[in-house]
Amino acid sequence: MKNYLFVVRSYNDLDQITPLIDYISRNNHNNNVFLFSSVHPETFKGNECQKYLKSEYGIELTYLLDGISSGLNRWFDGKLRQVLRFIKKVSLPRKLRNPVGDILSVGFKSVLSNYEKVNDKWEQRIIDRCKPDIILYDWVYPARFPYTPLTSIAKQLNIPIVALPHGIQVYTHEAPAGGVDKSIKQNQDLDKKDMNFDYQITQNNIGRIHLQNQGVVPDKIIELGSLRYERDWLQRYPKLYKGKQYELNHKSHLKIVIFPSKLEYKVHADKVRNLVKASLGNGRSIVIKPHTRGMTLDFLRSELREKNVISAPDTSSFELIKWCDVAIVWGSSIGLQVLGEGKQLIYPQFVHEPLTYYNKYLPDCLVNSIEELNEVLMKLEKNTDFCLYTSEQVDKLFRDIVYAGDDIHSVAKRHIDFFNSIN
Predict the structure, then answer these.
(1) What pLDDT, on a 0 to 100 scale, did the predictor assign at position 344?
(2) Which terminus of the chain has a smaller tally of CB atoms within 10 A, N or C?
(3) What is the CATH superfamily name and number for domain 3-68+120-230+408-422?
(4) Residue 241: which pLDDT band, with cuts at 50, 70 and 90?
């Protein structure tokens, strides 16, 4: 019997860990799973993974800081999350979003400061209740509140703390946000204080290289494959959505979904606008799904006024992929789910600078200009089965990126085997 304690902090963290929790709960009935969030539960409102874990296994998402501090602080915390979600949904213009964001930032800092001042020993209560054999965070700074008290007590009790990735590293040559030197110093400082992760899991060799470049000790890096995009889990996705289907009120000759990456990842906003305009055509419908980790579409406000262009921030990627004929993706691992569902994928390399694993494994799905994009879309209009790559290329991509070079053994089981080996 083993007790697992998971801590998540963002909406799409649940996309990454639910396959693992599902596997543990289906195959290891004597084990216990405890799921916590480091942020107010309002952050996860409407999340299908959260609903699935509760209905299927009775696993509730609990706030780490539940029950401490005043009710007013907790209420204010929730209201700030509601405002943040509203801002993301309506895509406020930048001139309004930036000052509102600054105000929210001050509010969140005030809330955390109030929680931190309470000498409540909440971390001890969680340890006493859950008796964890292993603690799993997403990639986060483990010496930042509210992780600090939990990290500290786990170190005292020799409970392994393992970092789980909240997404696949798509870029092959990009430096970490904030720069390499900053990341190296952070990891060195954490190691000196004995407040760092005991192990950091990544999906593949690309992830390993990025972690090493950030100063993570190589022996602490473990390649285990992608839980979210393992084919076994992709086949189980329909259980989460129970027949939900995305529909539009008008018929379409070609149904296009666009999964954009954030502008800060060297994306050219003007070229994205041109891409959306070029994708419009008679009988075409375009649905744009902004990245769930804090992306807004304010830079596409004029394009979203077009009749056949729709923003769908609250619709699941699963439903949109099922609905579409073709997905246009850049700078995101969601392309793996598109491929796993057997849908057509276009990668517009011209809208951003970085290179990704799509360049290496599916070079023919890359388009390098608006003219090339139009050419492919016209071919798809005539035949939605038209494909830019072979099944062998897709299999190779999955083998290396999703299965870390081993597509025979279950990714989820490999995680469990590793956890058993360290505790």
Answers:
(1) 95
(2) N
(3) Glycogen Phosphorylase B; (3.40.50.2000)
(4) confident
